[in-house]
Amino acid sequence: MKIVVIGGTGLIGSKSVAILRQGGHEVVPASPKSGVNTISGEGLKEVMTGAEVVIDLGNSPSFEDKAVLEFFETSGRNLLAAEAAAGVRHHVALSIVATDRMDNGYFRAKLAQERLIVASGNPYTIIRATQFLEFLGGIADSSTDGTVVRLPPCLFQPIAADDVAAIVAELAPAAPRNGIVEIAGPERAPLNQIVARYLKAVGDPREVVGDPEARYWGGRLEQYSLVPLAEARLGRIGLDEWLRRSRKET
Questions:
Q1: Backbone angles phi, psi at 66, to 5 degrees
Q2: Going by CATH, does the domain composed of 2-249 fall within 3.50.50.60?
Q3: What's the whole-number mean pLDDT along residues 147-168?
């Protein structure tokens, strides 16, 4: 099976490509560097030839509200049109849990992307993931005031990139769900507690304070803002196991 992976050299893409190739599929990682540009449309017709599945893991180079919305809308339209013309049988897109519940520019852009997919008529599966364990350092940095990290004590259920990639690689060759699959990590705990565990494990001396008024990437959070509200598929790698693997890789 020929599978095109948009963003196939990124964090999730590179891992998904490796798993799919091990499964015997013909996998084509596609990005502007390889001559495939979902914004300009360059290379889309050529790369789609003979493809049965397209996995969209592309991401905006800018997180500014207007720019990120324009990226996902333009990229989505071009990609879905090229797939329809080529007879692609399954469009798989990675999105975010709570993208329809968060007042945040990036989340709004991902929701716009999801709506384009649903309206396209193309067979699809949308995989909504919780935040990645790989983002914990960035979350701490974005919420640091001096030597203190202020985070809301809302529930948090981060997932490892390895688990995300494994699920993407499993669902892509399967039949389209024509719906949403939510995935999350195996542990659920307050955001401030998980970040505190992470910082302690990596030897970071910053203090983490649970502050209900603290913002998360500029947005206000409620208790369940970042976790699935209904049944979700859980990954296998918890924080401690992820830290152990991270140490072995460095």
A1: -65, -45
A2: no
A3: 97
